[in-house]
Amino acid sequence: MVDTRKWTRVERSSGDSREWETFVRPGADSSLRHVGSVTAGSEGVAYEQAATLFGDAADIWLCPAEAVCRYAECPLCDRTEAPADA
Fold first, then answer.
1. Which of 11, 72, 75, 83 gives 20 to 30 Å between its CA and that of 36?
2. Closest CA relative to residue 54, chosen from 74, 79, 27, 16
3. Phi, psi (5° rounding) for residue 19?
4. Helices then strands, each counted (H, E), the chain
5. What residues contact residue 55 under an 8 Å CB cut-off, 6+ apart?
6. How far is CA 32 from CA 8, 18, 45, 56, 77, in A?
7. Could you give all domains of the chain from N- to C-terminal order, each with its CATH number?
8. 61 and 23 Cβ atoms separated by less than 8 Å
9. Going along the chain, which residue ranges are E strands?
10. What global pTM score does this model have?
11. Per-residue pLDDT for the chain (86 aa), expressed as one digit of tens each?
């Protein structure tokens, strides 16, 4: 069982642009996988950005980041630092 006590919900900062989680399927027989996110003011612009980055993919899926609940052991800004117990 996962110890959820050490996980905290990660909130997003507000701004004029939205963050879009990006998923791609490289080929018709491949699994869909999360490849990152793009920041854009509209779905159309987000798709243009994702297509520029992953235009050779068979499928590109975009999801508004606010529709995804994120939980992490440490805030995203601390991810570049080594954990204290490492």
1. 83
2. 27
3. -100, 135
4. 1, 5
5. none
6. 26, 22, 21, 14, 27
7. 17-70 (3.10.20)
8. yes
9. 8-9, 18-25, 33-40, 59-64, 71-72
10. 0.66
11. 556 566 666 565 556 789 999 999 999 899 999 999 999 999 999 999 999 999 899 999 999 998 988 787 776 655 455 555 54
How many CB atoms are closer than 10 A to CB 57? 20
Spatial separation of the C-alpha atoms in residues 22 and 50, rounded to whole Å: 7
Q: For residue 15, which amino acid is it?
A: G
d(CA 32, CA 82): 30
For tokens 């050490």, the residue is 6
Quote the CA–CA distance of 83 and 86 in Å, as a whole number. Answer: 5
